[in-house]
From TrEMBL:
<keyword id="KW-0472">Membrane</keyword>
<feature type="transmembrane region" description="Helical">
    <location>
        <begin position="49"/>
        <end position="67"/>
    </location>
</feature>
<feature type="transmembrane region" description="Helical">
    <location>
        <begin position="261"/>
        <end position="283"/>
    </location>
</feature>
<keyword id="KW-1133">Transmembrane helix</keyword>
<feature type="transmembrane region" description="Helical">
    <location>
        <begin position="160"/>
        <end position="179"/>
    </location>
</feature>
<feature type="transmembrane region" description="Helical">
    <location>
        <begin position="79"/>
        <end position="101"/>
    </location>
</feature>
<protein>
    <recommendedName>
        <fullName>Glycosyltransferase RgtA/B/C/D-like domain-containing protein</fullName>
    </recommendedName>
</protein>
<feature type="transmembrane region" description="Helical">
    <location>
        <begin position="185"/>
        <end position="202"/>
    </location>
</feature>
<keyword id="KW-0812">Transmembrane</keyword>
<feature type="transmembrane region" description="Helical">
    <location>
        <begin position="232"/>
        <end position="249"/>
    </location>
</feature>
């Protein structure tokens, strides 16, 4: 798992080693003798499951390099794709699942991002209760417990646009039906859907693998997914818009109608703009396509 330092880490990961060891699922993944053999775990991330995921990621990375050097096409691309999928799983997906489990066992204000998860879940609850998330405050939600007393954030306003919680509301209802919900489940689903769509934007196997690796494994986006910041949400809709636009061009080149795909592209980009203002800066460039 990627290393995190600073205020956010102190606020969201207060007792991760102890919480991992006593968690009913995470604590049972390794034998007690294995935990004892590690001694005083450090440096950060400093807990056995994180170190195990680091080792698995390194192993998958070495396998990727060996496949690239030793195999020939088409086996090379196929096995490199599997190795890349393993890297993404052990470096991003499984660390996210780990923090979701730790949060479930430690409380809603722990092991997560404040606005992207805690407050977004609260806005969904307000929406389903018929309340306006933009006029309600968040002083009686887990947002008031996140961080330190001198660093409380966004208790009196919701800083994001509505598509994030509107899209997530059905997943929240499904989670309530099964007895468990974490906003990062939605982000992981979009993350997993976005990467195959992004691969369609590049020509050639090497460029497709490179694009997927850059989107999935750059430290900014990987940490966003793990802690539940909502940048992956807006990025996914931008990628969907570009993938639909490319499909429209391909259909036109083949003499087929691409109008519906262009409409879908515009819709997806509009939804990105309705998710977070960061997408607005791309609007002039999207208009030039």
């Amino acid at each position: 798992m990627l290393q995190v330092v600073g205020l956010a880490e102190q606020a969201a990961l207060p007792h991760r080693l102890q919480d991992v060891l006593r968690h009913p699922i995470l604590g049972s993944l390794l034998p007690q003798a294995g935990y004892a053999a590690m001694g005083e775990v450090g440096p950060r991330p400093g807990e056995p499951i994180g170190l195990l995921l680091n080792a698995l990621t390194l192993g998958a990375l070495i396998a990727y390099a060996l496949f690239d050097l030793a195999l020939t096409e088409p086996r090379r691309t196929r096995w490199k794709a599997w190795a890349l999928a393993a890297i993404i799983a052990t470096a991003v997906v499984l660390p996210t699942v780990k923090l979701i489990l730790l949060r479930e066992g430690s409380g809603p204000a722990s092991y997560t991002h404040d606005g992207g998860v805690i407050q977004t879940e609260a806005t969904i609850q307000y929406l389903l209760a018929g309340k306006n998330p933009y006029t309600e405050d968040y002083v009686d939600t887990p947002m008031a417990e996140w961080g330190f007393s001198e660093y409380r954030t966004a208790l009196y306003h919701y800083p994001y646009l509505p598509w994030t919680f509107i899209f997530s509301a059905p997943f929240y209802l499904l989670g309530q039906a099964v007895g468990f919900y974490d906003q990062r489940i939605v982000y992981l689903l979009l993350f997993a859907t976005m990467l195959p769509a992004a691969a369609k934007l590049a020509e050639g196997a090497a460029f497709r693998l490179a694009l997927v690796a850059v989107l999935a494994l750059n430290p900014i986006m990987a940490l966003d997914v793990i802690f539940g910041q909502n940048d992956v949400f807006v990025l996914a809709w931008i990628v969907f818009a570009l993938a639909a636009w490319r499909t429209a061009l391909q259909r036109r080149s083949a003499g087929q109608d691409g109008g519906r795909w262009l409409a879908l592209s515009a819709l997806c980009f509009g939804l990105a703009c309705a998710s977070k203002p960061t997408a607005w800066f791309l609007a002039p460039f999207y208009g030039l396509l």
